[in-house]
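Database export, one record per block. Field names are fixed; values are copied verbatim from the stored entry.
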Amino acid sequence: MPRDQHKRGAAGAGGIHKKTVIRNGKTYTYWEARITTGYAPGTGKQIQRFITGKTQKEVREKLQVIAVELNEGTYQTPTKQTVSEWLDVWASEYLESVKPRTKDSYICNIKRYIKPAFGASKLQNLKPLDIQRFYNELFRSGLSAKTVRNIHGCFHKALQVAVELGYLKSNPAANCKLPRKEKPDIKPLDVDAIADFIKAIQGHRFENVYLVSLYTGMREGEVLGLTWDVIDFQAGTIVIKQQLQKSRDGTGCYQLISPKNGKSRKITPAPSVMAVLKNERTKQSANKARAGSSWNNPLNLVFTNEEGHNLSAQTVYLHFKKIAAAIGHPDTRLHDLRHTYAVISIQNGDDIKTVQENLGHHTAAFTLDTYAHVTNQMQQASAAHMEAFIQRISST
């Protein structure tokens, strides 16, 4: 059994005492003091905290820091939770309003990366430098900058809630330097490739899906999540307020969730797009009649299979890749149809604000940055036109 031997406190030390403890036959000496940090609600009983240190001076300095914090009202009671315990609480109690796939991503990052590195550590003992080294090691191990940034986003959010609850004074992940994310290459189809693509999809089971994607710039999930109630054929508008997303819980179920940025938007597509949707409505009505009692379209989706079930995003994507390869563009992604729409819009003179709103970007600045190469080409062409005008004027 440990045996404590209290010795006389040093002069002027107040409540600071030197202590000697014998554990497993070894003697340990340290300094200890206690300070009242508050009073229990209801009983009024003092809440006291024990402060220890290797020297009397160390303990005194710790007491002074706490006294200042108590006086300024900034003192926070240290938490005894480990990082693992806190992450479990955060994941179970603070992710209810997060999109299912985002929640799955957070939980995966916690399990695969954060807990193995910090799970056993005390939450209170997390240091910014340790977290910075963690990110650096992940990047050096071969993880992409985007993946490291996603892990940081998860960890930072969890720690920020701990700050808001008073478990931490500040967020130790707040000022970490993250690897620069490489901008993915945008590979929009040019005019000739667009013509080849449209020809290649004629009569294809997903022809209308691809045409709506190409001519509206909607994201894949937004196209597959279109429902008939958001289409106003009379006004010629579509309200994009949801996307179809597959759950990652192993059930294989699809569900409608809010768009990527959480905001709905209204677009006015070209009349040809509305004609495509009318064609799809006619096709669906025929399928419904043939299916009879086996028809099942509870979400009122625009794009379904022959029995009313939602389309598989993976199947739509794989068919697209076969078509892209067949027309000589094997590296083109389904998402590049969205980029193609944006480039066509800008080249045809649509202002950036309109393009931004149609695409559902947060800001016009993001749209400009994403398609900077297009606007640069247009500026160069504009300069060439002006130069030609100047030369004509100068020669008269």
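Remark 1: Residues 135 and 364 are 31 Å apart (CA to CA).
Remark 2: Residues 1-14 have pLDDT under 50 and may be disordered.
End of record.
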